[in-house]
Amino acid sequence: MSTAPVFTRVAVVGAGLIGGSIARRLVGLGAYVVVVDPDPGTREAAAAAGLAVAETVPADRDLVVLAAPLDVIVATLPGVAAAAPDAVLVDVGSVKGTVRDACRDHGLESRWVGAHPMAGTELSGFDHADPGLLVDVSWAVTRGPGPVADVVRWVVDTFAATAVVLDADAHDRAVALVSHAPHVLANALLEVVERAADPAAAHLAAGSFRDGTRVAGRDPLRTRNMLADNAAALGPVVDDLVATLQDYRRDLDDRAALADRLAGVTAGADAVRRPEPRWQPCPDLDAALAGDGPVLVREGVSGLESAR
Amino acid sequence: MSTAPVFTRVAVVGAGLIGGSIARRLVGLGAYVVVVDPDPGTREAAAAAGLAVAETVPADRDLVVLAAPLDVIVATLPGVAAAAPDAVLVDVGSVKGTVRDACRDHGLESRWVGAHPMAGTELSGFDHADPGLLVDVSWAVTRGPGPVADVVRWVVDTFAATAVVLDADAHDRAVALVSHAPHVLANALLEVVERAADPAAAHLAAGSFRDGTRVAGRDPLRTRNMLADNAAALGPVVDDLVATLQDYRRDLDDRAALADRLAGVTAGADAVRRPEPRWQPCPDLDAALAGDGPVLVREGVSGLESAR
Fold first, then answer.
1. Are A182 and A238 contacting, i.e. CB atoms less than 8 angstroms apart?
2. pLDDT for res B2
3. Residues of B in contact with A275 (CB under 8 A)
């Protein structure tokens, strides 16, 4: 661990599941955190959980975590940035290109770094916030003119995270594949089963249905925002899923072709499921982060380690 | 529990994951079980696990559990039926219409009942057989001219199961929705992510991807058989999934429509996820099983209970 915290005076704007979990983690580590939320009920719940709350961002912050819905982040960005003029701005939403563009439009690029904890639950709201929810998981961190290395250190120190540093657009393409597409499929499956109104289906449903629909049929507006906000990257993935399902449909009547297709999927599965980074000591974080392509950073037994 | 076992001399033909788990459960309950498998290695593994093994079905069996792949069940059905002329024949595969038709063709309808334990794992083979795998789960049992009530009692007694009794074709339609379609989607998702070859995708994958692909990329021949064997029922479900994904694709650019769609899925989710059968005492099992539509049967605190 670093000897001194990277950021010491933090505001978390938006105390839903993610913002609330971040705030509770920081408080547990002894940081001076203020939770800012427009909803009185959420502020009450946060205060009852022992968090300091406010209606506006205090001016003395060195880090503001933007954890509101994407459209709110974009709409409130100039005001938040002006309220805490010395703060680094880190948004923790699931789409990065839109926030980067908004920061460019407002001349805030050098103060902004995107971060995205790759965890969550099918639940939402402050009531489900959990200081352990975002710990020991991967956090995407975006490259750019902002203080990237500081934010990498912060997520690694604060959340025992593996930081995955990459361009905002590369982030949006990757999460379209591994997060947003699974949400589309889960909801589509649940929709098809509901529409079938089969009297036996629910009684025969087991593990594959439960897992295949776990993230479906939950908070519809949160899911809508996640999918629609990343429509540009997600659209082509859904197109490929449609084409692939049409291939399966055709191959249902061609046992050899279906076996070949499934064997191909199986052969490629390990590379996707079990990546094995080649970790190296990382004495110079800025140097390790340079260049293109994703860079992984974690805390090793004797200091930071990185991998490409 | 019934005071006397329904069947006492059982042969299990095919000692893969399911057949092996059934055999191990029965042995644990003290039944006299013989495992029949054409593969010497599988017979050795079963014998090493303490099971009696044979190359052919002994003539004195009162129950033969058919747990081979579907094409093997169909091909070996007349020989197995002739070897054990007094045995009830219960297949435990994932598709029922094909076995029913084969039994009709061979004049075995009155000796056959289909059963399908709604559990399993992404693993396969006798090495993963587990006496607890198929316990305390739902088992589909097919209606027909065979000894349905006896088989219902057997699965309820032996596996502490909830029996879901329904017509073979209704079974095949229901499992296409809640078991086979999830397998198609999981493999399609894994295929699309593999093909994208995105250098960041694997590092950002979390719960929704892990759950959405858990059953994908496993034993390709087993999955091929499961899907292709039920092609008649699965095809229309895949067609509906394609159409639904095309709806999502279109709605990605229409936030209101996408929200409406997801809200509709959420509103209907509980009916599919948490069916609440109205259990009744079941003093007369044959009467409870009469009629159309699925009938559920379980062991209650004071005897059998059923629900429609």
1. no
2. 47
3. 202-203
Whichever domain contains A129, its CATH number is 3.40.50.720
The beta-carbon neighbor of B265 closest among A206, A216, A253 is A216
Same domain, A103 and A160: yes
pTM exceeds 0.95 for this model? no
Where do runs of H (alpha helix) occur along B29-85?
A: 40-48, 70-83
Given pLDDT bands bounded at 50, 70 and 90, which one contains residue B4?
confident
Spatial CB neighbours of A257, under 8 Å, sequence gap ≥ 6: A250, A251
Q: What is the DSSP string of chain A?
A: --SS-S-SEEEEE--SHHHHHHHHHHHHTT-EEEEE-S-HHHHHHHHHTT-EEESS--TT-SEEEE-S-HHHHHHHHHHHHHHSTT-EEEE--S--HHHHHHHHHTT-GGGEEEEEES---S--SGGG--TTTTTTSEEEEE-SSS-HHHHHHHHHHHH--EEEEE-HHHHHHHHIIIIIHHHHHHHHHHHHHHHHT-TTHHHH--HHHHHHTTTSSS-HHHHHHHHHHTHHHHHHHHHHHHHHHHHHHHHTT-HHHHHHHHHHHHHTHHHHH------EE-S-HHHHH-SSS-EEEEEETTEEEEE-
**Mean pLDDT, range A53-71, rounded to an integer:** 95
Give the Cα-Cα-Cα angle B64, B54, B116 (nearest 5 degrees).
Answer: 30
CB A226 within 8 A of CB A183: yes
For residues A95 and A239, state if they share a domain: no
Per DSSP, helices labelled H in B106-230 are 148-159, 168-175, 181-196, 201-204, 207-212, 220-229
Domain of A149? 9-166+276-307
Radius of gyration of the CA atoms of chain A, in A: 21
Answer whether residue A198 is part of any domain.
yes
Same domain for B26 and B116: yes
Which CATH number fits the domain that encloses residue A236?
Answer: 1.10.3660.10
Q: Are residues A116 and A220 in the same domain?
A: no
Per the domain annotation, does B2 fall within a domain?
Answer: no
Residues B179 and B97 occupy one common structural domain: no
CA dihedral A248, A252, A257, A260 (to 10 degrees): 70
* ipTM of predicted assembly, 2 dp: 0.90
Same domain assignment for residues A124 and A264:
no
* Residue B3 scores a pLDDT above 70: no
Residue B3 belongs to a domain = no
Looking at the complex, does the CB of residue A166 fall below 8 Å from at least one CB of chain B? Answer: yes
B-chain residues near A167 (CB < 8 A): none
B243 and B265 co-located in one domain: yes
Answer yes or no: are the C-beta atoms of B180 and B215 closer than 8 Å: no
Domain check: are A17 and A121 in the same one?
Answer: yes
A170 Cβ under 8 Å from any chain B Cβ = yes
- Identify all chain A residues contacting B228, using CB atoms and an 8 Å cutoff: 252-253, 255, 258
Domain count, chain B: 2
